[in-house]
Amino acid sequence: MAKLLRDGVNVWNQWRRSHRLIKPDLSIANLNDVDLSGTDFIRATLSGADFSNTNLTGADLTGADLTGAFLA
């Protein structure tokens, strides 16, 4: 799933709209140095993911599991 996200926010958000019942699992994903502004992370599992130096401006993290995620 991380590869899909690295293909771009528009690709990811379109996939999310088409697959609303899937709860994405990006546990321990390396997502550092990526522009993820406006990304739909609703109900996603992001535990242990590395978001260092990542732009999350406007990302929707409603109900997301960020346990142990690195957000600095």
Q: How do the strands and helices of this protein lay out in sequence?
A:
Blueprint: H1 2-6, H2 9-18
Shape: globular
Catalogue the unreliable spans.
none
The amount of beta strand, in percent, is: under 5%
Query: What would you call the structural class?
Result: mainly alpha
Q: Cα-atom Rg, whole angstroms?
A: 11 Å
Give a quick precis of the structure.
This protein is mainly α and 72 residues long.
Which descriptors would you attach to this protein?
single chain, about 70 residues, mainly alpha, globular
Describe the structure.
It is a single chain. It is built from two helices and no strands. It is mainly α and 72 residues long. The longest helix is centred in the first third of the chain and has 10 residues, at 9-18.
